[in-house]
């Protein structure tokens, strides 16, 4: 697979990752190499990664607890302190080996330590490969509010080795599929249709789908790196999806949802809103709803859940002047930005989701 050229960096695949990395480390005189992992990737992914890295640079491993609950400023403080204690300086390099939490927080810590040091992302989850590690967004949550603190700053490279997917449970694989489905819905109808029958996909097919998904996201990001226009398309399903994810994260009576599980619900809800605004047809909506529900388990909502979820929408980063902004479908494969929906329509979307 040919590398994909992004703004200021490239995305490499499989064996090319390590060929690039060895040359990059040889060419750059880094003082120290820090590898950030969580408790899962330390055990399941780091040994493979280290076995393929050839360098004389001193390597320090820094581990944090896994999970969205640890993507916060408190973890950043611990990481900044660890970097300081271990002798990190302006010429250090951080390599983030993990899922979206690791690449998000690792990129943010690197971008702010000593006013910014270099970093490389090595995503080990499907979600990280097709979404979190691509596009230069780095950040952490503020309490239960998703990605409220952060910066846009490019890594030196993104290294995607699909062998790491063998370490994932099925729910984590499905979580990544949500973002791939989104890329088809907002950008490429033909790509979307490939997910109508997942049963016949081989591992080679999956590699190709991952590659195409990265191409789609990268094409959008390169047009609008700082999210002033078309990049907002990537938020389809996320306005309601993030509110749902945050609500389930903070509510002790709810089982925490993976990012993709919440976004899958958000895409169905926002497709319903698109239909009601006559941007997609009923048949298109039912196709979307049926396909997503065939992959993801239905999430149960009580009547008491809706008001607090809707209240969380005001914190969405796309909002302008206090108005909630949706990126809605304009037919499958196209998007319409800066759309509004009142609470009555949002409630109707939840009611339809339950049926």
From TrEMBL:
Keywords: Cobalt, Lyase, Metal-binding, NAD, Nucleotide-binding, Zinc. It comes from the Bacteria. Coiled coil: none annotated. Residues 62-174 form the 3-dehydroquinate synthase N-terminal domain. One of its GO terms (molecular function) is 3-dehydroquinate synthase activity. Its cofactor is Co(2+); NAD(+). The keyword Repressor does not apply. Pfam families: DHQ_synthase (PF01761), DHQS_C (PF24621). InterPro entries: Dehydroquinate_synthase (IPR050071), DHQ_synth_AroB (IPR016037), DHQ_synth_fam (IPR030963), DHQS/DOIS_N (IPR030960), DHQS_C (IPR056179). Residues 176-319 form the 3-dehydroquinate synthase C-terminal domain. Catalyzes the conversion of 3-deoxy-D-arabino-heptulosonate 7-phosphate (DAHP) to dehydroquinate (DHQ). This is 3-dehydroquinate synthase.
């Amino acid at each position: 697979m040919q590398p994909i050229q992004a703004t200021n960096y490239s995305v490499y695949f499989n064996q090319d990752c390590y060929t690039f990395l060895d040359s990059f480390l040889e060419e750059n005189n880094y003082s120290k190499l820090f590898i950030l992992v969580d408790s899962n990737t330390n055990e399941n992914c780091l040994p493979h990664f280290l076995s393929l890295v050839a360098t004389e640079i001193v390597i320090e491993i820094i581990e944090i607890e896994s999970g969205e609950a640890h993507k916060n400023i408190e973890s950043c403080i611990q990481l900044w302190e660890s970097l300081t204690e271990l002798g990190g300086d302006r010429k250090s390099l951080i390599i983030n080996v993990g899922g979206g939490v690791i690449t998000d927080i690792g990129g943010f810590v690197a971008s702010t330590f000593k006013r910014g040091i270099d970093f490389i992302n090595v995503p080990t989850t499907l979600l990280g490969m097709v979404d979190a590690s691509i596009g230069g967004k780095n950040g952490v949550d503020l309490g239960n509010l998703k990605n409220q603190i952060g910066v846009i700053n490019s890594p030196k490279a993104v290294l995607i080795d699909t062998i790491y997917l063998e370490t994932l449970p099925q729910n984590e694989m499905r979580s990544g599929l949500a973002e791939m489905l989104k890329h088809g819905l907002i950008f490429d109808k033909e790509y979307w249709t490939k997910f109508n029958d997942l049963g016949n996909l081989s591992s080679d097919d999956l590699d190709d789908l991952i590659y195409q998904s990265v191409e789609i996201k990268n094409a959008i990001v390169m047009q609008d790196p700082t999210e002033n226009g078309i990049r907002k398309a990537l938020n389809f399903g996320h306005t309601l999806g993030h509110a749902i994810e945050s609500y389930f994260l903070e509510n002790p009576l709810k089982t925490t949802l993976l990012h993709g599980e919440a976004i899958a619900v958000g895409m169905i809800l926002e497709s319903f809103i698109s239909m009601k605004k006559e941007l997609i047809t009923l048949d298109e909506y039912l196709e979307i709803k049926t396909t997503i529900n065939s992959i993801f388990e239905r999430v149960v909502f009580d009547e008491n859940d809706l008001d607090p979820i809707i209240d969380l929408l005001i914190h969405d980063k796309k909002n302008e002047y206090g108005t909630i902004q949706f990126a809605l479908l304009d037919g499958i494969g196209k998007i319409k930005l800066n759309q509004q929906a009142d609470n009555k329509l949002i409630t109707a979307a939840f009611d339809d989701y339950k049926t």
